[in-house]
Description:
Largest sheet: none
Order of helices and strands: HHHHHH
Protein name: Dehydrogenase
Number of helices: 6
Organism: Tersicoccus phoenicis
Number of domains: 1
Distance between the termini: 46 Å
Shape: elongated
Amino acid sequence: MAGFFSAARAARRDDAALGRGVWRRAHDRFRRGLDRYHQVTEEVADAVTANALVLTGDELADLLPRVRAVCAAAHRAAPSEGSDIPASARGRLSDVHRALTRSGNALAATAEAAAMVRLGAGGLDAVHRRAANVVEFVREAEERIAGESTD
């Protein structure tokens, strides 16, 4: 039962910090991509390849608190409970949302590249390139939200 209650508390915390709209969805999409990446790496048989993928996964996991911070800041600036950026902030926060969306998409592509490595149809260099894109998009989202708070 403790797991149920802790999950409920975590959901309430997420609702308070991220809302239930676009910022929450951007955060959750990133988290799901990260989960998918780790699921793929668990199935890699070769120890050297698995270790390389796990190291990349650790770097990607380090981005989750940063994505959460951006999403929380965006939610404070423009609370969203729906599927759109609030009209009052649409121009200001569109670039933040775009960078968050691109980071989630890049993370999904990274998981896909890792799956190709697992199947023997791709190389680690593709995983590293895609992971670098994820880092870049998160950095861009951070810069955009920081610029929003200084305006």
